Amino acid sequence: QAKARGRSRTEVFDRDMHVQAVDRLELETALRRAVDRHEMRVAYQPQYDLRTGRLDGVEALVRWEHPERGILLPGEFLHIAEETGLIVAIGNWITSAACRATARLHDLAPDASDIVVSVNLSARQLASPRLIDDVAAIVAAADLPPGALVLELTETVLMDVDASGEALTRLHQLGVGIAVDDFGTGWSSLRYLRDFPVDILKVDRTFVAGLGQDPEDEAIVAAVIDLAHALGLKAVAEGVEDETRLARLRALGCDSAQGWLLGRPMAEADLIDLVLAQSPPPDA
Ligand code: C2E
Ligand code: MG
Ligand code: MG
Ligand code: MG
């Protein structure tokens, strides 16, 4: 009986594995066509300057509007895009869409012209020999000043790529900003902050979550903000979900913040409404 149960468990396991493999293959096939079929979307999450309270940036976050499965989040397909290398083409599409949307925002209202857009890059993208030329072409085609684009890289991505130092230097020469994403959750080698042309540290939301509750998280967030400032960098907090955390971040001198309290990732049309509400057009 035990043997029979064991076998059936194995069969169930095999069937699950099979379902997973088919699932993954279907997703991969669909992902190959997703850009051409106009299924990729960019959601924009607002970032606010904590001193002035003004919207000073947006983070571009990819979504996939799958014809059958509905909206998929990055966690559901990005790994496939990375493993297959499709992320290079998809990433260029995202960067281009985000730069164009930001250029449109700049045209909309005079005091929207300082809004910066952040785009996430994965290791495959940073390792691509075409990255610099692609980014240069994209900002030029969008008619966006390169300084209005920030590229976000996690510490793990920075560690992964042998040539990341040179790629970052060349991106920086273009005038593009560089942010270290999820700071403190990777390898946190401070050498990278010394050797690479970084402009922004993003305080990871796992630390922000403990503000007002956990003295260790509080100490880490304070230290990251101070480190950023000591190096002449901007500190941006992620995952701000309530007023307590927002107040703590302000008190600790954090420069900017994003999170559900301040704004969910939204479609470009909603972002435009938000910016217009903040800065009425000159003839209003
Ligand atoms: P990330 O760059 O750290 O982006 C922040 C993530 O936190 C986003 O998840 C955002 O929706 C979520 N978030 C924002 N505010 C809050 C909050 O208050 N509380 C909580 N719990 N979460 C919040 P999302 O959009 O699912 O993206 C997940 C990750 O996928 C991103 O993490 C980034 O590493 C990656 N990613 C997203 N878009 C792209 C892209 O276009 N290209 C690449 N290469 N990676 C991307
Ligand atoms: Mg990010
Ligand atoms: Mg992050
Ligand atoms: Mg994070």
TrEMBL record:
It comes from the Bacteria. Residues 24-279 form the EAL domain. This is EAL domain-containing protein. It comes from Iamia majanohamensis.
